[in-house]
Amino acid sequence: MIAIPDPTYGLVVFDGSVIEVFESNAKSRRYHLKMIKSIELVEKKNYIELKYSDLNMSQHIPFKAEAMEQARELVNTVRAAL
Hints:
- This protein is α+β, with helices and mostly antiparallel strands.
- It is 17% helix and 48% strand.
- The chain has one domain (2-81): PH-domain like.
- The strands form 2 sheets. It has a 4-stranded antiparallel β-sheet with strand order 1-2-3-4, covered by helices on one side. A 3-stranded antiparallel β-sheet has the order 5-6-7, with helices on one face.
């Protein structure tokens, strides 16, 4: 499991099949691997761009700069599983 602390949401976790974003207001969002179309790391702005579903929707998931290595690991792990 990969977990990234996040300044806006609270925590981003990938367990091998689902990316889950736990927000600081106690809400969460889940993105199953089968729905994910692509994932990109935007290093200059410290966020992960996740494209999902057949509607080509996207989500920007920000993270702290010091969590860059964890973000790279998450993106590479998800890409390998797609």
